[in-house]
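Reminder to self: tokens first, then the designed residues, so the page reads top to bottom the way the pipeline ran.
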């Protein structure tokens, strides 16, 4: 049975407030909660003690009783004292936006690395919020005033030390996994296969785009990534090799989606995962073009990428879900922007051509003469280049092919100079 919740937010005249509240409701739904009511307050400055004003706190309490809500979720990150004050005033559990996003990430994490990243972020969030248990212990034992600095305070300090120790232990574990991934990343770089990273807001269609390309151009078509119409369906970085009909190839990566007010604890914990995009040769910024708030989503994605140091990487803006828009002509391209539908083959082929132009413009047509004893070079060209012509001559095999700058350098000794 879904938990009944209220959502509460304050508007400080920010233009995307309505969207932020709508997204909070979607986040709650993504965590199997039923939103039974919503309260808003226009206010210049949040109340330092209770986030909303006292009158609004009473209103929240009344609505929660009427709707039988057992949890109230607030649209911003609350301070530890705000959570404590609100729980006392409402006599209900209180959660903030950060706690909600962390809960969703915890439920969705499947790989060891993602689980460690989420657990670290969760503990860092909880650390300053340890309170209550110790105070209750002292109140129950009848202590008061200065004597309150007794067993309760010691309990809180012990809990904090335990959490700090856990964080250090998990960070060491995570560092080992990150090192392993770094080794794999360096190997990929050494192979000189270009890397294309899919980035974008959560539920924009990154995994659908990846699966479409994997189905069409990968020998690992059975290794499609999890894809569902829900927030944060993907938390792990997936890497797939794409081999095009002309033997040009690239690695495609798909990673965690972004959301507005993404908790800084998560950005920090997932930094190594998000940095996959930093080393890419090309970013495909997938946008849900059917969402009226797509511009806000794009801005959030760009700000988050900048926060983890992803800058100066060429970008193609891929406006997805055009099939959901009336009278939209697609696929089409204007400069570094395309409009397409990741669910339709002609759109995926169109996107592939755009990627090819961006990645492989440096490829050149060259002629090679390969002695018969170096048959492995012929095999290499057949597997890694677009072979345009093959002719068997007296002294070896003549091949005319389109090759990458790296392969041209590698095969320089076989090149026929014009």
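Designed residues (418 positions):
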């Amino acid at each position: 049975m879904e938990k009944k919740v209220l959502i509460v937010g304050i508007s400080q005249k920010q233009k995307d407030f309505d969207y932020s509240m709508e997204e909070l409701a979607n986040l709650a739904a993504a965590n199997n909660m039923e939103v039974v009511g919503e309260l808003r307050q226009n206010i210049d400055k949040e109340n330092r003690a209770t986030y909303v004003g006292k009158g609004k706190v009473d209103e929240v309490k009344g609505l929660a009783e009427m709707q039988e809500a057992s949890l109230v979720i607030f649209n911003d990150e609350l301070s530890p004292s705000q959570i404590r004050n609100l729980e006392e005033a409402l006599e209900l559990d209180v959660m903030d936006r950060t706690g909600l996003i962390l809960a969703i990430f915890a439920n969705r994490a499947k790989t060891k690395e993602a689980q460690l990243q989420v657990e670290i972020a969760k503990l860092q969030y909880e650390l300053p919020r340890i309170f209550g248990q110790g105070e209750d212990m002292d109140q129950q034992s009848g202590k008061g005033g200065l004597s309150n600095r007794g067993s309760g305070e010691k309990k809180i300090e012990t809990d904090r030390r335990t959490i700090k120790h856990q964080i250090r232990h998990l960070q060491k574990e995570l560092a080992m996994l990150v090192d392993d991934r770094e080794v794999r990343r360096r190997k990929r770089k050494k192979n000189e296969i270009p890397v294309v990273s899919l980035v974008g807001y959560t539920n924009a269609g990154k995994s659908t785009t990846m699966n479409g390309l994997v189905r069409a151009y990968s020998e690992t078509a059975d290794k499609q990534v999890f894809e569902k119409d829900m927030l944060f369906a993907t938390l792990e970085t997936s890497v797939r090799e794409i081999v095009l009909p002309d033997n040009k190839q690239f690695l495609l990566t798909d990673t965690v989606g972004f959301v507005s007010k993404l908790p800084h604890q998560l950005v920090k914990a997932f930094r190594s995962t998000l940095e996959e995009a930093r080393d890419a040769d090309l970013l495909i910024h997938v946008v849900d073009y059917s969402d009226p708030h797509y511009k806000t989503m794009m801005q959030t994605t760009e700000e988050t990428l900048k926060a983890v140091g992803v800058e100066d990487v060429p970008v193609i803006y891929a406006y997805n879900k055009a099939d959901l828009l009336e009278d939209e002509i697609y696929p089409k391209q204007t400069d570094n922007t395309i409009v397409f539908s990741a669910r339709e083959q002609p759109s995926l082929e169109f996107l592939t051509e755009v990627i090819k132009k961006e990645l492989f413009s440096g490829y050149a047509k060259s002629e090679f003469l390969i002695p018969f004893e170096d048959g492995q070079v012929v095999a290499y060209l057949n597997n890694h280049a677009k072979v345009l012509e093959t002719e068997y001559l007296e002294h070896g095999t003549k091949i005319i092919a389109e090759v990458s700058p790296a392969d041209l350098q590698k095969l320089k000794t076989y090149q026929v100079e014009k």
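Residues 3-108 form a domain with the Rossmann fold fold (CATH 3.40.50.11060).
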